[in-house]
Each structure stands twice: as structure tokens, then as C-alpha cells.
Design a protein that fits this description.
mainly alpha, 6 helices, 68% helix, globular
């Protein structure tokens, strides 16, 4: 139960940070991405602050023998850059650049009445379903098709 409560609190704090920093505002994000036009660099400070806080947090965590509410740490591992990872990164970037939203801020935007976010999340869900259908068909042996 304690894990669930702490996860809820962490999610609420993260969502509040997204709202306060205006990462849920597509026009603000698109202005940040428009480096050759009317560029708004303010989100660079948000990202920089997040990087500093995360770096300090990881340094503190790595000095601990084990987590408070788990048996072991689960740090991300090394993964080679393959076609699947590169394609996913490109699709993420294209979607972010076209719409000004990515999954976390889109979910958070729903809480502040983001109608555009609902459309984005529906399209994202459709893309995820299409990916699963296509990848499962490609993974089947040719004899089963």
C-alpha cells in the first residue's frame, strides 16, 4: 500500500510540474521547438533543471545499499541502437514536433481540459495497436500466414 501511495504522490508532483512548466501547452512546446523562428527558450531551463535534479537523485540513490520500498534498484541498462529504437525515436520526435505533445504531458493535459490531448492520446493508442498487429504478423513464420 505504501508503494502505491508514494507512486500516486510522485505522479501528482510530476503532473503538477508539467502543468506549472507549461509542458502541457502545445503552443509553448512548439514555440520551444521553433529554433529558426520565434523561439521560446524557457523550456530549456525546465529541461535543464530536470536534468540537474535527476543527476543528483541518481547519485544519492547509487550511494544507498537498497531502495526503501523495493528489494533492489532497477536502473535502465545499456541497449544498442537498433532499427526499432531509432524508428521509435524518430516517430516520437515527429509527433512531438507536429503536435507539441508527448505521452506524459498529454495525459496530464487531460486533467486541465486538453481536448487536443484527447485526440493525441486516441491517435497514439491507435498507433500502438497498429504496431502490435503489424509486429505480431511480421513475427509469425511464413508458413502460418
Amino acid at each position: 500500500m505504501a508503494k502505491s501511495i508514494l507512486a500516486l504522490i510522485a505522479g501528482l508532483v510530476f503532473g503538477l510540474g508539467l502543468v506549472i512548466s507549461q509542458m502541457v501547452n502545445p503552443s509553448k512546446v512548439l514555440a520551444f521547438l521553433d529554433i529558426l523562428g520565434d523561439w521560446d527558450p524557457s523550456l530549456a531551463f525546465v529541461m535543464g533543471a530536470a536534468l540537474v535534479i535527476t543527476s543528483v537523485g541518481f547519485a544519492v540513490l547509487k550511494s544507498q545499499p537498497k531502495p526503501v520500498l523495493a528489494e533492489r534498484f532497477q536502473f535502465p541498462g545499456d541497449r544498442p541502437i537498433d532499427a526499432q529504437l531509432a524508428t521509435g525515436a524518430v516517430l516520437f520526435g515527429v509527433g512531438w514536433g507536429l503536435v507539441g505533445l508527448c505521452p506524459g504531458p498529454a495525459i496530464t493535459a487531460l486533467s486541465v481540459g486538453g481536448v487536443q490531448a484527447a485526440g493525441f492520446l486516441a491517435a497514439m493508442a491507435g498507433g500502438m495497436i497498429a504496431y502490435e498487429l503489424i509486429s505480431s504478423r511480421l513475427a509469425r513464420p511464413a508458413a502460418q500466414s
